[in-house]
Protein backbone atom coordinates (compact mmCIF):
# COMPACT_ATOMS: atom_id res chain seq x y z
CA UNK A 1 0.00 0.00 0.00
CA UNK A 2 1.48 3.35 -1.02
CA UNK A 3 1.32 6.57 0.95
CA UNK A 4 -1.60 8.00 -1.07
CA UNK A 5 -3.77 4.93 -0.38
CA UNK A 6 -2.81 4.95 3.27
CA UNK A 7 -3.77 8.62 3.54
CA UNK A 8 -7.14 7.91 1.80
CA UNK A 9 -8.01 4.97 4.08
CA UNK A 10 -9.59 6.18 7.32
CA UNK A 11 -7.97 4.90 10.49
CA UNK A 12 -9.85 2.20 12.35
CA UNK A 13 -11.18 2.73 15.83
CA UNK A 14 -9.64 0.78 18.67
CA UNK A 15 -10.11 0.53 22.38
CA UNK A 16 -7.09 2.77 22.80
CA UNK A 17 -8.12 5.16 20.05
CA UNK A 18 -11.95 5.26 19.86
CA UNK A 19 -13.94 7.57 17.60
CA UNK A 20 -15.89 10.44 19.05
CA UNK A 21 -19.66 10.44 18.65
CA UNK A 22 -19.44 13.23 16.06
CA UNK A 23 -17.11 11.12 13.93
CA UNK A 24 -19.45 8.12 14.10
CA UNK A 25 -22.41 10.36 13.20
CA UNK A 26 -20.48 11.85 10.31
CA UNK A 27 -19.54 8.42 8.97
CA UNK A 28 -23.16 7.14 9.30
CA UNK A 29 -24.41 10.23 7.49
CA UNK A 30 -21.81 9.71 4.76
CA UNK A 31 -22.82 6.08 4.22
CA UNK A 32 -26.53 6.96 4.13
CA UNK A 33 -25.89 9.77 1.67
CA UNK A 34 -24.42 7.23 -0.76
CA UNK A 35 -27.94 5.77 -1.31
CA UNK A 36 -29.00 8.90 -3.18
CA UNK A 37 -32.49 9.67 -4.38
CA UNK A 38 -34.96 6.77 -4.40
CA UNK A 39 -38.65 6.20 -5.08
CA UNK A 40 -40.45 4.95 -1.98
CA UNK A 41 -43.90 3.33 -1.68
CA UNK A 42 -45.78 3.36 1.61
CA UNK A 43 -48.88 4.26 3.58
CA UNK A 44 -49.34 7.56 5.35
CA UNK A 45 -49.78 6.86 9.05
CA UNK A 46 -49.70 10.48 10.23
CA UNK A 47 -49.63 14.02 8.76
CA UNK A 48 -48.30 16.94 10.77
CA UNK A 49 -48.54 20.52 9.53
CA UNK A 50 -46.77 22.39 12.28
CA UNK A 51 -47.21 26.12 12.51
CA UNK A 52 -44.02 28.08 12.34
CA UNK A 53 -42.11 25.30 10.61
CA UNK A 54 -41.53 27.35 7.51
CA UNK A 55 -44.06 25.48 5.40
CA UNK A 56 -42.51 22.08 6.12
CA UNK A 57 -44.92 19.13 6.38
CA UNK A 58 -43.98 16.03 8.35
CA UNK A 59 -45.32 12.62 7.28
CA UNK A 60 -44.99 9.27 8.99
CA UNK A 61 -44.64 6.79 6.14
CA UNK A 62 -45.38 3.22 7.10
CA UNK A 63 -44.67 -0.08 5.37
CA UNK A 64 -48.08 -1.74 4.75
CA UNK A 65 -46.70 -5.22 5.39
CA UNK A 66 -44.33 -4.66 8.30
CA UNK A 67 -44.13 -2.73 11.53
CA UNK A 68 -41.67 -0.22 10.11
CA UNK A 69 -42.00 3.50 9.57
CA UNK A 70 -39.91 6.50 8.54
CA UNK A 71 -40.37 10.21 8.92
CA UNK A 72 -40.68 12.17 5.68
CA UNK A 73 -40.21 15.93 5.37
CA UNK A 74 -41.42 17.89 2.36
CA UNK A 75 -42.43 21.41 1.58
CA UNK A 76 -46.09 22.34 1.65
CA UNK A 77 -45.92 23.33 -2.04
CA UNK A 78 -44.65 19.83 -2.95
CA UNK A 79 -47.55 18.28 -1.05
CA UNK A 80 -50.14 20.59 -2.61
CA UNK A 81 -48.74 19.91 -6.06
CA UNK A 82 -48.68 16.12 -5.80
CA UNK A 83 -51.34 15.14 -3.25
CA UNK A 84 -53.46 18.10 -2.13
CA UNK A 85 -56.18 15.89 -0.55
CA UNK A 86 -53.83 13.55 1.24
CA UNK A 87 -55.32 11.86 4.32
CA UNK A 88 -53.99 9.42 6.84
CA UNK A 89 -54.14 5.85 5.56
CA UNK A 90 -53.57 6.80 1.92
CA UNK A 91 -50.99 5.02 -0.25
CA UNK A 92 -48.34 7.29 -1.75
CA UNK A 93 -45.24 7.08 -3.87
CA UNK A 94 -42.62 9.74 -3.28
CA UNK A 95 -39.19 10.70 -4.52
CA UNK A 96 -36.92 11.22 -1.55
CA UNK A 97 -33.39 11.18 -0.28
CA UNK A 98 -32.44 9.62 3.06
CA UNK A 99 -30.82 11.99 5.52
CA UNK A 100 -29.23 11.38 8.88
CA UNK A 101 -29.47 14.13 11.52
CA UNK A 102 -26.41 13.82 13.78
CA UNK A 103 -27.78 16.16 16.44
CA UNK A 104 -30.76 13.86 17.14
CA UNK A 105 -29.34 10.63 15.73
CA UNK A 106 -32.44 10.11 13.57
CA UNK A 107 -33.01 9.00 10.02
CA UNK A 108 -35.63 10.61 7.78
CA UNK A 109 -36.50 11.08 4.14
CA UNK A 110 -36.52 14.43 2.40
CA UNK A 111 -39.01 14.36 -0.48
CA UNK A 112 -39.14 16.66 -3.48
CA UNK A 113 -42.05 14.90 -5.21
CA UNK A 114 -45.10 12.98 -3.96
CA UNK A 115 -47.84 11.08 -5.77
CA UNK A 116 -50.97 9.72 -4.24
CA UNK A 117 -51.73 6.26 -5.51
CA UNK A 118 -55.19 6.31 -7.11
CA UNK A 119 -57.78 3.57 -7.09
CA UNK A 120 -56.97 2.49 -10.61
CA UNK A 121 -53.29 2.03 -9.83
CA UNK A 122 -54.17 0.16 -6.62
CA UNK A 123 -56.34 -2.23 -8.58
CA UNK A 124 -53.55 -2.78 -11.11
CA UNK A 125 -51.13 -3.56 -8.28
CA UNK A 126 -53.61 -5.94 -6.69
CA UNK A 127 -54.15 -7.72 -10.00
CA UNK A 128 -50.39 -8.06 -10.45
CA UNK A 129 -50.04 -9.45 -6.91
CA UNK A 130 -52.97 -11.78 -7.50
CA UNK A 131 -51.30 -13.29 -10.57
CA UNK A 132 -48.04 -13.68 -8.65
CA UNK A 133 -49.66 -15.48 -5.70
CA UNK A 134 -51.71 -17.67 -8.01
CA UNK A 135 -48.60 -18.66 -9.95
CA UNK A 136 -46.92 -19.65 -6.67
CA UNK A 137 -49.83 -21.95 -5.82
CA UNK A 138 -51.32 -20.00 -2.90
CA UNK A 139 -54.80 -20.25 -4.45
CA UNK A 140 -54.61 -23.98 -5.28
CA UNK A 141 -57.79 -25.81 -4.31
CA UNK A 142 -55.96 -29.05 -3.45
CA UNK A 143 -53.99 -27.42 -0.60
CA UNK A 144 -57.07 -26.00 1.13
CA UNK A 145 -57.93 -27.82 4.34
CA UNK A 146 -61.39 -28.96 5.38
CA UNK A 147 -63.00 -27.17 8.28
CA UNK A 148 -63.61 -29.23 11.44
CA UNK A 149 -67.21 -30.37 11.88
CA UNK A 150 -67.44 -29.16 15.48
CA UNK A 151 -64.37 -27.15 16.55
CA UNK A 152 -63.48 -27.21 20.23
CA UNK A 153 -62.43 -23.57 20.14
CA UNK A 154 -62.80 -20.92 17.45
CA UNK A 155 -60.39 -18.07 16.90
CA UNK A 156 -61.89 -14.78 15.73
CA UNK A 157 -59.86 -11.85 14.40
CA UNK A 158 -62.03 -8.75 14.01
CA UNK A 159 -62.54 -5.18 15.08
CA UNK A 160 -63.69 -4.41 18.59
CA UNK A 161 -67.41 -3.80 19.07
CA UNK A 162 -68.10 -4.14 15.36
CA UNK A 163 -71.12 -5.53 13.56
CA UNK A 164 -68.93 -8.28 12.12
CA UNK A 165 -67.99 -9.46 15.62
CA UNK A 166 -71.61 -9.47 16.76
CA UNK A 167 -72.74 -11.31 13.62
CA UNK A 168 -70.18 -14.08 14.06
CA UNK A 169 -70.63 -14.55 17.81
CA UNK A 170 -74.43 -14.26 17.93
CA UNK A 171 -75.14 -16.44 14.91
CA UNK A 172 -72.60 -19.08 15.95
CA UNK A 173 -73.99 -19.32 19.50
CA UNK A 174 -77.54 -19.31 18.16
CA UNK A 175 -76.67 -22.34 16.04
CA UNK A 176 -74.48 -24.05 18.65
CA UNK A 177 -74.83 -22.56 22.15
CA UNK A 178 -71.72 -24.36 23.46
CA UNK A 179 -69.45 -22.75 20.85
CA UNK A 180 -66.30 -21.32 22.49
CA UNK A 181 -64.40 -18.37 21.00
CA UNK A 182 -61.06 -16.74 21.50
CA UNK A 183 -61.42 -13.24 20.11
CA UNK A 184 -58.50 -11.05 19.05
CA UNK A 185 -59.46 -7.40 18.51
CA UNK A 186 -57.43 -5.61 15.86
CA UNK A 187 -57.66 -2.62 13.57
CA UNK A 188 -59.44 -3.68 10.40
CA UNK A 189 -58.40 -0.68 8.31
CA UNK A 190 -55.70 1.89 8.27
CA UNK A 191 -51.92 1.63 8.58
CA UNK A 192 -51.97 -0.49 11.76
CA UNK A 193 -54.36 -3.13 10.43
CA UNK A 194 -51.91 -5.51 8.76
CA UNK A 195 -49.35 -5.73 11.62
CA UNK A 196 -52.08 -6.25 14.19
CA UNK A 197 -53.82 -8.91 12.10
CA UNK A 198 -50.51 -10.69 11.54
CA UNK A 199 -49.79 -10.66 15.27
CA UNK A 200 -53.26 -11.96 16.16
CA UNK A 201 -53.01 -14.66 13.50
CA UNK A 202 -49.72 -15.90 14.93
CA UNK A 203 -51.09 -15.96 18.50
CA UNK A 204 -54.21 -17.92 17.50
CA UNK A 205 -52.29 -20.25 15.19
CA UNK A 206 -49.88 -21.11 18.03
CA UNK A 207 -52.82 -21.94 20.33
CA UNK A 208 -53.35 -25.69 19.94
CA UNK A 209 -56.89 -25.46 21.35
CA UNK A 210 -57.98 -23.25 18.43
CA UNK A 211 -59.13 -25.49 15.57
CA UNK A 212 -60.30 -22.84 13.10
CA UNK A 213 -59.62 -19.10 12.69
CA UNK A 214 -62.11 -16.59 11.30
CA UNK A 215 -60.95 -13.22 9.98
CA UNK A 216 -64.05 -11.03 9.81
CA UNK A 217 -64.81 -7.47 8.78
CA UNK A 218 -67.85 -5.63 7.56
CA UNK A 219 -68.21 -4.04 4.16
CA UNK A 220 -66.30 -1.00 2.96
CA UNK A 221 -64.61 0.65 0.02
CA UNK A 222 -61.72 -0.84 -1.87
CA UNK A 223 -59.32 1.37 0.07
CA UNK A 224 -60.82 0.21 3.38
CA UNK A 225 -60.36 -3.45 2.44
CA UNK A 226 -56.79 -3.03 1.21
CA UNK A 227 -55.23 -4.58 4.37
CA UNK A 228 -56.91 -7.87 3.49
CA UNK A 229 -55.15 -7.93 0.11
CA UNK A 230 -51.72 -7.41 1.65
CA UNK A 231 -49.06 -9.81 0.43
CA UNK A 232 -47.60 -10.48 3.88
CA UNK A 233 -51.04 -11.33 5.28
CA UNK A 234 -51.80 -13.66 2.37
CA UNK A 235 -48.53 -15.53 2.84
CA UNK A 236 -49.06 -15.76 6.61
CA UNK A 237 -52.53 -17.27 6.10
CA UNK A 238 -51.10 -19.71 3.56
CA UNK A 239 -48.41 -20.81 6.05
CA UNK A 240 -50.79 -21.14 9.01
CA UNK A 241 -51.32 -24.67 10.35
CA UNK A 242 -54.90 -23.87 11.41
CA UNK A 243 -57.68 -23.65 8.78
CA UNK A 244 -58.61 -20.02 8.10
CA UNK A 245 -62.02 -18.67 7.11
CA UNK A 246 -62.17 -15.32 5.32
CA UNK A 247 -65.33 -13.31 6.03
CA UNK A 248 -64.52 -9.89 4.63
CA UNK A 249 -67.21 -7.44 3.58
CA UNK A 250 -70.17 -8.52 1.53
CA UNK A 251 -70.54 -11.06 -1.25
CA UNK A 252 -69.23 -8.79 -4.08
CA UNK A 253 -66.10 -7.90 -2.05
CA UNK A 254 -63.22 -10.20 -2.95
CA UNK A 255 -59.91 -9.24 -1.34
CA UNK A 256 -56.96 -11.52 -2.02
CA UNK A 257 -57.42 -13.10 1.41
CA UNK A 258 -60.57 -14.78 0.05
CA UNK A 259 -58.49 -16.69 -2.50
CA UNK A 260 -55.80 -17.80 -0.02
CA UNK A 261 -58.06 -18.76 2.89
CA UNK A 262 -59.18 -22.35 3.26
CA UNK A 263 -62.80 -21.24 3.03
CA UNK A 264 -64.37 -18.01 1.81
CA UNK A 265 -67.57 -16.88 3.52
CA UNK A 266 -69.66 -14.29 1.72
CA UNK A 267 -70.40 -12.40 4.98
CA UNK A 268 -69.54 -12.71 8.68
CA UNK A 269 -73.00 -14.21 9.21
CA UNK A 270 -72.25 -16.82 6.57
CA UNK A 271 -68.97 -17.58 8.35
CA UNK A 272 -70.87 -18.34 11.55
CA UNK A 273 -73.03 -20.80 9.63
CA UNK A 274 -69.96 -22.53 8.19
CA UNK A 275 -67.83 -22.99 11.29
CA UNK A 276 -70.42 -24.64 13.56
CA UNK A 277 -73.36 -26.93 12.80
CA UNK A 278 -76.96 -25.99 13.54
CA UNK A 279 -77.99 -27.76 16.76
CA UNK A 280 -81.67 -27.90 15.80
CA UNK A 281 -80.82 -29.25 12.36
CA UNK A 282 -78.43 -31.82 13.80
CA UNK A 283 -81.08 -32.96 16.30
CA UNK A 284 -83.55 -33.25 13.44
CA UNK A 285 -81.05 -35.28 11.43
CA UNK A 286 -80.33 -37.50 14.44
CA UNK A 287 -84.05 -38.05 14.98
CA UNK A 288 -84.51 -38.83 11.29
CA UNK A 289 -81.56 -41.22 11.38
CA UNK A 290 -82.97 -42.88 14.52
CA UNK A 291 -86.32 -43.35 12.80
CA UNK A 292 -84.62 -44.84 9.75
CA UNK A 293 -82.60 -47.12 12.03
CA UNK A 294 -85.76 -48.19 13.87
CA UNK A 295 -87.51 -48.96 10.59
CA UNK A 296 -84.51 -50.88 9.33
CA UNK A 297 -84.28 -52.93 12.54
CA UNK A 298 -88.02 -53.65 12.58
CA UNK A 299 -87.90 -54.62 8.92
CA UNK A 300 -84.98 -56.95 9.59
CA UNK A 301 -86.78 -58.47 12.58
CA UNK A 302 -89.92 -58.93 10.43
CA UNK A 303 -87.96 -60.68 7.71
CA UNK A 304 -86.28 -62.95 10.23
CA UNK A 305 -89.63 -63.75 11.84
CA UNK A 306 -91.07 -64.67 8.46
CA UNK A 307 -88.05 -66.86 7.81
CA UNK A 308 -88.46 -68.56 11.19
CA UNK A 309 -92.19 -69.08 10.57
CA UNK A 310 -91.37 -70.58 7.18
CA UNK A 311 -88.89 -72.92 8.84
CA UNK A 312 -91.39 -73.83 11.56
CA UNK A 313 -94.05 -74.62 8.93
CA UNK A 314 -91.84 -77.24 7.35
CA UNK A 315 -92.71 -80.82 8.37
CA UNK A 316 -89.29 -81.49 9.79
CA UNK A 317 -89.85 -78.75 12.37
CA UNK A 318 -93.66 -78.77 12.61
CA UNK A 319 -93.79 -82.58 13.38
CA UNK A 320 -90.26 -83.84 13.93
CA UNK A 321 -91.65 -87.32 14.83
CA UNK A 322 -93.14 -87.65 11.34
CA UNK A 323 -89.71 -88.36 9.92
CA UNK A 324 -89.20 -91.11 12.49
CA UNK A 325 -92.67 -92.48 11.82
CA UNK A 326 -91.98 -92.46 8.11
CA UNK A 327 -88.70 -94.25 8.59
CA UNK A 328 -90.36 -96.67 11.02
CA UNK A 329 -93.09 -97.43 8.46
CA UNK A 330 -90.45 -97.98 5.82
CA UNK A 331 -88.52 -100.31 8.14
CA UNK A 332 -91.74 -102.22 8.97
CA UNK A 333 -92.63 -102.48 5.29
CA UNK A 334 -89.16 -103.69 4.45
CA UNK A 335 -89.26 -106.18 7.31
CA UNK A 336 -92.67 -107.50 6.20
CA UNK A 337 -91.46 -107.67 2.66
CA UNK A 338 -88.33 -109.49 3.78
CA UNK A 339 -90.49 -111.92 5.82
CA UNK A 340 -92.81 -112.57 2.92
CA UNK A 341 -89.91 -112.99 0.55
CA UNK A 342 -88.16 -115.36 2.92
CA UNK A 343 -91.35 -117.34 3.50
CA UNK A 344 -91.95 -117.55 -0.21
CA UNK A 345 -88.43 -118.69 -0.79
CA UNK A 346 -88.66 -121.31 1.98
CA UNK A 347 -92.01 -122.55 0.67
CA UNK A 348 -90.72 -122.77 -2.85
CA UNK A 349 -87.54 -124.50 -1.67
CA UNK A 350 -89.68 -126.93 0.33
CA UNK A 351 -91.75 -127.72 -2.74
CA UNK A 352 -88.65 -128.18 -4.81
CA UNK A 353 -87.19 -130.42 -2.12
CA UNK A 354 -90.33 -132.53 -2.08
CA UNK A 355 -90.37 -132.86 -5.84
CA UNK A 356 -86.70 -133.72 -5.83
CA UNK A 357 -87.25 -136.22 -3.04
CA UNK A 358 -90.13 -137.75 -4.95
CA UNK A 359 -88.02 -138.02 -8.07
CA UNK A 360 -85.19 -139.38 -5.98
CA UNK A 361 -87.43 -141.92 -4.41
CA UNK A 362 -88.81 -142.83 -7.79
CA UNK A 363 -85.33 -143.45 -9.02
CA UNK A 364 -84.04 -145.02 -5.78
CA UNK A 365 -83.44 -148.83 -5.67
CA UNK A 366 -85.40 -148.85 -2.44
CA UNK A 367 -88.52 -148.08 -4.39
CA UNK A 368 -87.79 -151.06 -6.61
CA UNK A 369 -87.18 -153.16 -3.55
CA UNK A 370 -90.59 -152.08 -2.25
CA UNK A 371 -92.15 -153.65 -5.29
CA UNK A 372 -90.61 -157.03 -4.38
CA UNK A 373 -87.26 -156.86 -5.99
CA UNK A 374 -84.01 -157.66 -4.19
CA UNK A 375 -80.35 -156.83 -4.63
CA UNK A 376 -77.96 -159.81 -4.72
CA UNK A 377 -74.36 -159.14 -3.78
CA UNK A 378 -71.37 -161.40 -3.57
CA UNK A 379 -69.30 -161.57 -0.51
CA UNK A 380 -67.02 -158.81 -1.80
CA UNK A 381 -70.03 -156.51 -2.18
CA UNK A 382 -70.20 -156.81 -5.96
CA UNK A 383 -73.79 -156.65 -7.21
CA UNK A 384 -74.63 -159.74 -9.19
CA UNK A 385 -76.33 -158.87 -12.44
CA UNK A 386 -75.90 -162.17 -14.28
CA UNK A 387 -75.90 -165.79 -13.27
CA UNK A 388 -72.54 -166.30 -14.80
CA UNK A 389 -71.00 -163.95 -12.30
CA UNK A 390 -71.30 -166.52 -9.49
CA UNK A 391 -70.57 -170.17 -9.10
CA UNK A 392 -72.20 -172.89 -7.10
CA UNK A 393 -71.42 -172.65 -3.52
CA UNK A 394 -70.67 -168.87 -3.55
CA UNK A 395 -72.14 -167.09 -0.59
CA UNK A 396 -74.56 -164.33 -1.49
CA UNK A 397 -76.20 -161.51 0.40
CA UNK A 398 -79.74 -160.73 -0.62
CA UNK A 399 -80.94 -157.24 0.31
CA UNK A 400 -84.67 -156.82 0.56
CA UNK A 401 -86.87 -153.80 1.08
CA UNK A 402 -86.84 -154.64 4.71
CA UNK A 403 -83.80 -156.50 5.95
CA UNK A 404 -81.39 -158.86 4.13
CA UNK A 405 -80.80 -162.62 3.68
CA UNK A 406 -77.70 -164.81 3.39
CA UNK A 407 -77.79 -167.48 0.73
CA UNK A 408 -75.51 -169.92 -1.05
CA UNK A 409 -75.56 -170.53 -4.78
CA UNK A 410 -76.76 -174.07 -5.49
CA UNK A 411 -76.92 -173.79 -9.18
CA UNK A 412 -77.34 -171.19 -11.81
CA UNK A 413 -78.67 -170.94 -15.30
CA UNK A 414 -78.63 -168.34 -17.99
CA UNK A 415 -81.48 -166.06 -19.18
From TrEMBL:
Role this protein plays: Bidirectionally degrades single-stranded DNA into large acid-insoluble oligonucleotides, which are then degraded further into small acid-soluble oligonucleotides.
InterPro entries for this protein: Exonuc_VII_L, Exonuc_VII_lsu_C, OB-fold_nuc-bd_dom
Gene source species: Actinoplanes siamensis
Entry EC number(s): 3.1.11.6
Catalytic activity, as annotated: Exonucleolytic cleavage in either 5'- to 3'- or 3'- to 5'-direction to yield nucleoside 5'-phosphates
GO molecular function per UniProt: exodeoxyribonuclease VII activity; nucleic acid binding
Coiled-coil ranges from the UniProt annotation: none
Protein name from the UniProt record: Exodeoxyribonuclease 7 large subunit
Amino acid sequence: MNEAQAAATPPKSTADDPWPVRVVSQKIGAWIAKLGWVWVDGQVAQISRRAGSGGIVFLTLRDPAANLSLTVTLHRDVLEAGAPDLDEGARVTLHAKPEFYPARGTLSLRADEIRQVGLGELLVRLERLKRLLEAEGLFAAERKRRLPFLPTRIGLITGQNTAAERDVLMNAKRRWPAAEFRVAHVSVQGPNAVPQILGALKVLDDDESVEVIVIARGGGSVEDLLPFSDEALCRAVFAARTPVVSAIGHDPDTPLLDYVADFRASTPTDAAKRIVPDLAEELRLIDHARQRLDRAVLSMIGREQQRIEAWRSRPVLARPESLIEQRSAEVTALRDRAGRSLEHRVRRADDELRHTLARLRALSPLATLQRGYAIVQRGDGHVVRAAGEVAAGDPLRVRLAEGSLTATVVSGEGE
